Request: fold
Amino acid sequence: MEGKTPWVLHDRIFSEDHMYNFIQRTSARENLTQTEIALPLMKKLHEGQTRKGAEKIPYIYHPLLMACHACALGLKEDDLLATILLHDVCEDCGVTPAELPVNENVRKAVELLTFEIREGETDEDAHERYFTAIKTNRLAVIVKIIDRCNNLSTMMGSFDRERMIEYIEETEKYVFPLMDLLKFGYDGKYYDVAFLIKYHLLSVVHNDKHALTLL
Reply:
């Protein structure tokens, strides 16, 4: 049909089984004890949940893809990978940080990454409080940035136009400052990694904006 592409689009790019096995092998090889705990726990807690989108792929696709992204960037820190795997379980699975059988570093980061609107708060107030708190925790900063990279890269077909615009604006307001913190903070440890992630994030944001102008 004129004006239409012949492409068939899918929500799943990689196999969650292959990603699960990769993280499992990596954690065993690197002796990542917290990751070894978090991996099967993440799978159990998210059982039956799916991602937004027509194909309804298993929810674990998201944290697994984030964990593989982190490994590809050389970020194989045990607490970081465990936090990535568990970052949504308190928000989506009805458990509290105190119930997670991981160390205090991971529990604290997961707690900070769990978004909620408290009584009397507006949505804007909740976001201001949420992102301000994330800035105080290195693990939460890195996970939130990778989380946003993943969501912006994979959710274009799942969000409606209004939600996508809102998500991009939220990214520019709250996540871009986290990128600057990652790049210039922490004694420069993440300077090169921050460049790679920022390139990814900026490219996706600009491409999504371009796509939205064509809708």
Observations:
- DSSP finds ten helices and no strands in the chain.
- Residues 161-184 form the longest helix (24 residues).
- The domain at 16-214 is CATH 1.10.3210.10 (Hypothetical protein af1432).
- The chain has one domain: 16-214.
